[in-house]
Amino acid sequence: MRPLTLVITLVLLAACSGAPSGTGAPSGTGAPPGTAPPASPTPSASPAGQPLAALVDFPSGTGPQSTGYDLSLVGADGRVVARAHAAARTFIGTGGTGGGAAALDLPEVSAANGRVYYLDGDQNLRSLAPTGSASDVLASLPGSATAHAAFAVSPDGRSIAVAVLTYGGGAPSVTSLYIEDLPGGNRHDITHSGPDLVWPVGWHGTNLVLATSSTGFSLQGLTFNPYFAAGYLLVDPATSNRVATVAGGGDPATGCVVTGLIVASGTACWHATSQTAGEVWFLNWTGARGDTVAVQRPSATAALNPDRESAGICCDASGAVLVAQNHAAPAPTALQGSPDSWPCWVDDQHLLAGSVNDHQFQPGVLAVGAGTVARVADAHGFCAAVLGSAGAAAEPV
């Protein structure tokens, strides 16, 4: 399975492991090689241009037994307007007692230019439109049975950033990091120095947002965000120069753990102040901390609103998602969340909660002003991206 644990035991992250400490079978992140079933689009009945959340669900997990994943585009009213099915990456693991560790759960999707781009297997890049149409984008990405490819499409859809994490002969390494045109050509390599692994997850203006991790293996699968990021780097792709370092590091006691989706205003980050309480920090793309919201929970995930004035937080003791608005203390809402996932803003007034591991969990969308919840009746999974419009959460970043 692809578990997410929200306990303050991120020893492996803090000690260069990239995931919470723990024992047991690896969560795994791949699927046997083979041809994925074709996409099954559903015609959209929603208004054109409305923001949509991309839900990703692995019904049989992401280990060697995986049957792939379902991608669903969900509106602020809870309706599913498009869907597709794709194969997971080939499973890469260390083996050993208890199954060993598994390769990082790199993100499967990127939202840009009115579509959600998604990886089908190791190499095939496809896109899904809100109308339900799915199409091939590239002949292939450089993934394989020993190397996983990660990607982020530019907001205008004209170029793609790609990283290749190669698992062979010991510690994994970034063997390629580059930008090229879509559907191909004019490749430009990006130089990365330093011990951390990096891969693209989005853009901020003309700069590339890279997720970072100090290790290429995990015992617990996804952590506090859909990118498996311990932190972020902002890089000028033309020069390879680092523009900013945005928090993270994976230790909630001495720093914070980046959580939720990245948005135009930055990211949320969880900091533990004790064994029973902590804070959500609002971080911008310079890495500076703005607001701080106190949360009386031992651990929590959060989503920074694109307006940077509020945050959604999962969850209180009853499972209710909290909303902290306009610098006020967080208050419980009618939206129920899953303790293994993070909320996400579909736009600045609608907050969605899903689940990583509970494939029967019914996601819901909260209309913050009205306090009402629209249930997502026929899709499951966690919020992996937001396909935006004016005022929406994540396109462009």
Describe the structure.
- By secondary structure, the protein is mostly beta strands.
- It has one domain (11-387): 7 Propeller (Methylamine Dehydrogenase, Chain H).
- It is built from one helix and 30 strands.
- The chain has a four-stranded antiparallel beta sheet with strand order 3-2-1-30, with no helix packed on it. A four-stranded antiparallel beta sheet has the order 5-6-7-8, with no helix packed on it. It has a four-stranded antiparallel beta sheet with strand order 9-10-11-12, with no helix packed on it.
- The radius of gyration is 19 Å and the shape is globular.
- Residues 4-47 and 390-394 have low confidence and may be disordered.
Helix content range of the residues, please? under 10%
**Rg, Å, rounded:** 19 Å
Oligomeric status of the shown chains? single chain
The unreliable regions are 4-47, 390-394
Secondary-structure content class: mainly beta
Give the overall silhouette. globular
What distance lies between the first and last C-alpha atoms, to the nearest angstrom? 30 Å
Q: Going across the biggest sheet, name each strand in turn.
A: 3-2-1-30
- Proportion of residues in extended strands: 35-45%
